[in-house]
Task: inverse folding
């Protein structure tokens, strides 16, 4: 039962702690957490008049859940810059309508840092931005900023093939 065709001696699945987020052609610095990629297809139930005791099920509309990205607060302003494309105090958001949506690439890396799988998220925009968490002088935690991204769909990038591991 070979799960890995290029690396038949590999038995462990990929770890979830090695990944990158890419938009505007560059890796976004410091992303430490990402919520799951999840889609749901509505179930439509109906009955056939000739078979009144049997219920049939058909697929309906598919929705894609929002994705949340988190990272430690630094001087990199990528999260804030994108969030400001949707809203900015005293600004004119209609001037930024053509650029507030982005396509995003999520790359899952193997232990050697090679791209093992990738997903493409389409027509994304920021629906929620958290610039700072609750601040607590008695805590020892890192300050985290986050954005919640709405997407109109995603798919796995099938051009990414299993890399030959060193």
Result:
């Amino acid at each position: 039962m070979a799960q890995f065709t290029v690396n038949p001696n590999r038995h462990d699945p990929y770890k979830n702690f090695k990944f990158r987020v890419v938009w505007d052609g560059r890796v976004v610095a410091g992303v430490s957490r990402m919520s799951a990629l999840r889609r749901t297809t509505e179930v439509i139930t109906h009955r056939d008049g000739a078979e009144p005791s049997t219920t049939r099920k058909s697929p309906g509309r598919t929705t894609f859940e929002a994705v949340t990205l988190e990272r430690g607060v630094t001087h990199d302003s990528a999260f804030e810059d994108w969030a400001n494309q949707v809203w900015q105090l005293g600004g004119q958001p209609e001037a930024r309508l053509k650029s507030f949506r982005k396509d995003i690439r999520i790359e899952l890396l193997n232990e050697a840092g090679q791209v093992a799988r990738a997903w493409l998220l389409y027509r994304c925009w920021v629906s929620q931005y958290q610039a700072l968490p609750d601040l607590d002088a008695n805590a020892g935690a890192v300050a985290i900023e986050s954005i919640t991204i709405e997407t109109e769909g995603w798919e796995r990038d099938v051009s990414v093939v299993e890399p030959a591991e060193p």
Observations:
- Strands lie at 19-23, 26-27, 31-34, 39-48, 51-64, 67-72, 102-109, 115-130, 144-150, 154-156.
- The chain has a mean pLDDT of 87.
- The radius of gyration is 21 Å.
- The longest strand covers residues 115-130.
